[in-house]
């Protein structure tokens, strides 16, 4: 029995008070309920995995489970289908992608396959996916050649962006494609196409375009005639020559070169026979004057 006049103190002890205050702290409750159990489990796993034999056994079980899932029929790829590509491009794709079928879709890196096919010069875009039925489908969009480029190595097919899409065995195989030559010509395909479009009446006489000094064009015509165009405003200069030719039949005469490099002072170079004829006429005229 408690002595008379003494009451028990209902207040908690100092340690009990501190514990209650800690339990009211969100971070302490997080550590007690989450971080502490996680640390205990993680520590136990580290201790268990510290043994090499246990790690090898766990890896073996993982590989067995993965192989069993990966080799299921619904995950197997049995063939490859190439759509949108010509025969030559399809053969190139099969050559750079020597895949041994059947193969599990888990073992196919679709991003790598797409990147390797995109590296082909004649391929503009490509998409790769595994189609239901175990088919690896490769959908290709080829670059369309718009002009032939004559180089020391032969004829090359070039698209409008300047990409070489392939080689051409002979000019006669591509009679509808215009022709260009010269170093750096592939970087100015768009301008070359504009010049061909502006040629108009000269189209039948044009033999090709030559890039000179990697900075300007020469228009090569039949009868060994050339039109020397300026570095800037080449299309306008060609249109001016065509207008002069239609008005005065300039290109129907014995001319070798029409030099438009200086638009303010265009010049012409006569053929040798024309020079001789001019000299003969001038001598006759001088003789008459002398008489």
Question: Can you describe this structure?
Answer:
The chain has helices at 14-23, 26-49, 52-70, 87-96, 110-118, 189-199, 234-248, 272-290, and strands at 76-77, 79-83, 103-104, 123-131, 135-142, 145-151, 154-159, 164-168, 179-181, 206-212, 216-221, 226-228, 255-259, 267-270. The protein is of the alpha/beta class.
SSE diagram, text form:
Blueprint: H1 14-23, H2 26-49, H3 52-70, E1 76-77, E2 79-83, H4 87-96, E3 103-104, H5 110-118, E4 123-131, E5 135-142, E6 145-151, E7 154-159, E8 164-168, E9 179-181, H6 189-199, E10 206-212, E11 216-221, E12 226-228, H7 234-248, E13 255-259, E14 267-270, H8 272-290
Parallel strand pairs: 2-5, 6-9, 9-10, 12-13
Antiparallel strand pairs: 1-3, 4-5, 6-7, 7-8, 10-11, 11-12, 13-14
Helix pairs in contact: 6-7
